[in-house]
Specification:
Layout (H helix, E strand, L loop, with lengths): L2 E2 L9 E3 L4 E3 L2 E3 L8 E2 L4 E3 L4 E3 L2 E2 L9 E2 L4 E3 L4 E3 L2 E2 L9 E4 L2 E3 L4 E3 L2 E2 L9 E4 L2 E3 L4 E3 L2 E2 L9 E4 L2 E3 L1
Antiparallel strand pairs: 1-2, 2-3, 3-4, 5-6, 6-7, 7-8, 9-10, 10-11, 11-12, 13-14, 14-15, 15-16, 17-18, 18-19, 19-20, 21-22
Length: 162
């Protein structure tokens, strides 16, 4: 019989059965049963590892580990997306913007896709999947042709004017 591990969130995704730990129905064979604890909905740890869902985050420094949101975490050396090192990000300038948008001093991304030509210093996410910088307005990771970034704004939810 599986018993929920509920020390962090109301939504239960980690379970134990007296011998093993599970993420939903996936057994985490490496998990130390006695020291395992959830950190939030997707992250957990034990005396040996930090986990994203049922995967070990390889090479992470557990002493400096910090959860940023449901997909991103960091340690003193790297930014991680899910359970993998996100090698494209500058760790010191990495910033979460909302709705899947992130940036560093070099680039802007939407759901891990680079937004080509976006200017990180002026880039702003402003509603749903819309964003802009000094040069363009973007819908998700694509330039919204003909839209003027100086005048484009949301007048109310899902109504935009230019």
């Amino acid at each position: 019989m599986l018993y929920p591990i509920t020390n962090v969130t109301e939504t239960i995704v980690y379970f134990k059965d007296g011998k093993y730990i599970y993420f939903i129905q996936n057994k985490i064979a490496e998990a130390d049963f006695k020291t395992f604890k959830t950190l939030d909905y997707y992250y957990a740890r034990d005396k040996n590892y930090i986990y994203y869902k049922d995967k070990i985050i390889e090479g992470i420094d557990s002493n400096s580990f910090e959860i940023l949101d449901d997909e991103y975490s960091k340690d003193k050396n790297y930014i991680y997306m899910n359970e993998k090192k996100a090698l494209d990000f500058d760790r010191d300038t990495f910033e979460l913007l909302g709705a899947g948008y992130v940036k560093d001093c070099y680039n802007v991304y939407r759901l891990s896709r680079k937004i080509e030509g976006a200017d990180p210093s002026t880039f702003k996410f402003f509603y749903a999947w819309y964003s802009k910088d000094k040069n363009n307005v973007y819908e998700e990771d694509k330039i919204l042709e003909g839209a003027n970034p100086e005048t484009f704004k949301a007048s109310e939810p899902f109504k935009f004017i230019d």
